[in-house]
Amino acid sequence: MSLPPVPSERGAEVGRRIGVGLMYGLWKPRVLGAWKVPACGPVILAVNHSHNIDGPMVMGVAPRPTHFLIKREAFIGPLDAFLTGIGQVKVDRNAADRTAITQALGVLSAGGVLGIFPEGTRGQGDFAALRAGLAYFAVRSGAPVVPVAVLGSSGRPGRLVKALPPLRSAVDVVFGDPFEAGDGSGRRTRAALDEATERIQKQLTSHLENARRLTGR
Questions:
Q1: What digits encode the pLDDT tens for the residues 5-36?
Q2: Burial classification of residue 14, based on how many CB atoms lie within 10 Å of its CB (0-12 exposed, 13-18 middle, 19 or more buried)
Q3: Residue 51 has pLDDT above 90, yes or no
Q4: How far is CA 47 from the centre of its chain?
Q5: 121 DSSP 8-state letter
C-alpha cells in the first residue's frame, strides 16, 4: 500500500501569495513577532480559531508557506482541487484519519510548516478546550510549536453566525516564542500525550493573554 503524497510546498507558497493579496486587500493585518517563526526546519503553528478567515489570514502573513489541517467539509466542489493544490491537508474530524495523519507528519519530516487549530473547530478562540492532535504531532515529530493569536477576526461579538470583520479594519496576528511540547523523554504514551496537551494549553493561554495586552484587544 503506497503512502499518500506529501502536500506540495510549492502549492503552499502559491496559497501564501494568494493569502497576502486577499488579506491585505480586504483588511489591515497587523503582524507581531513573525520573526519568532524558525526560518527553516519543521514547525507547528498552533492558531486560535474564532472565524473562517483565521486560516487564510495566517497563511497570508506567516513568513513561511503553511499547510493547514482543514476539515473535509470545506473540500466541496471546486474548493477540493483548489485547497489540495495549495498544499492544504483534508482531515476527517470524526475519525482517526490515517491519510491526514500521514500527510501531516510528511510535511514535518520534510521540514515544512504545519498549521493546526488545536481547539478542533471554531469557538471563542481562547484555547479553553484542546484536542490531543496537536500534542500527538508535536511529540511524534519533535517539531517546535509556535503559538499564534488572531485577534479581531470575529466581527461583532454575541452573534450566532459571526460576521466578517468590517472591510479595511485591523486584524492582529501575534506569533509567540517557539516551545517544545514533549518532556524530552521521547515517550509517546497516552499519559505523555495528556501531559503534553496540558503543557501546550498553558503555553497557548499565556500567549493569548500576552497578545491581548500587546494589542489592547
A1: 889 999 999 999 999 999 999 999 999 999 99
A2: middle
A3: no
A4: 4
A5: S
Over residues 164-180, the pLDDT tens digits come to 788 889 999 999 999 99
- Read off the C-alpha cell for 103: 500527510
pLDDT tier, 1 (very low <50, low <70, confident <90, very high otherwise): low
3-state secondary structure the chain: CCCCCCCCHHHHHHHHHHHHHHHHHHCEEEEECHHHCCCCCCEEEEECCCCCCHHHHHHHHCCCCEEEEEEHHHCCCHHHHHHHHCCCEEECCCCCCHHHHHHHHHHHHCCCEEEECCCCCCCCCCCCCCCCHHHHHHHHHCCCEEEEEEECCCCCCCCCCCCCCCCCCEEEEEECCCECCCCCCCCCCHHHHHHHHHHHHHHHHHHHHHHHHHHCC
- One-letter amino acid identity for 46? A
- The residue behind cell 478567515 is 53
Structure pTM?
0.90
Q: Using CB atoms within 10 Å of the CB of residue 72, give its burial: 0 to 12 exposed, 13 to 18 middle, 19+ buried.
A: middle
**Average pLDDT estimate for 183-188:** 75
List phi, psi (to 5°) of 57.
-65, -50
How many residues does the structure list for the chain? Answer: 217
Cα 146 to Cα 158: distance, rounded to the nearest angstrom: 29
- Grid cell for residue 51: 472565524
- Sign, CA dihedral 2-65-36-168, equals negative
